[in-house]
Predict the 3D structure of the following.
Amino acid sequence: MTEAEAVRELLAAVARRLEAADRIDGTPTDDLLSAIAATAVTALEAQAASIAIHDPTADRLVFAAAAGPASGGVVGLAIDAGAGIAGYAFTTGQPLAVAEATADPRFDPTVAEATGYIPSTLLAAPLSDDAGTIGVLEALDRRGGSFTLRDLDVAGALAREATIAVRAGQARRDAATLLRESLAGLLGDPTAAGPADGAAIDELVSRATADLATGDDDPRWQLADRIARLRDADPASLELAVDWLDALLRRAGQRRVGGRGSP
């Protein structure tokens, strides 16, 4: 096998795995964050909820999703990573609820001025995992009073879901970037000043994708599509699907042991 063939085979393997992941869970990150923000509005009985993601290059929190009647105009706004109550939750990694937002010395009016809405009560929960803090979930003005300790627990659970969604999106983007950079290094002339140009890399990606030769009628993709649809199935159907997959795996194992792939 030539070096070019080896590169194409490696690329094809990576492409297959990325395509399988997208088929099983292809919901865009922004849609997931919007759904989580909408859930926060309902669960916390808030006038608005938003999710801001940290941009490490600019060191700013960028509002990526929002929901609720008082959320208009906040998506796309950016604030300093340490600014306001959201910045406090982000930099400390601690959730907090504030009963009188404008009287709190940590309150930053930047977002309120931009949206035209000044909150009375405010809740902020960091988007955190073992790798660090990547953003903040905020809720404004609980109907009927201030946010409670239970609300902090609910917000924390929603923030964890948002963290998972953001990390998954980052992983997909990082995989694509890593693949492209690796190809640039592999295709580059070590004696030249720089790697191969983008057109050469794009051509290799296209050729490897064509080599996959796995259309929608491929049984593997049919299975992936059906697994994705099982997310909306009832528990009894899920148990039946698990039993069927277990039986299929046992049969595959018996065929490998008994006949090395033969019926």
Notes: Residues 1-214 form a domain with the Beta-Lactamase fold (CATH 3.30.450.40). Confidence is low (pLDDT under 50) at residues 189-195.
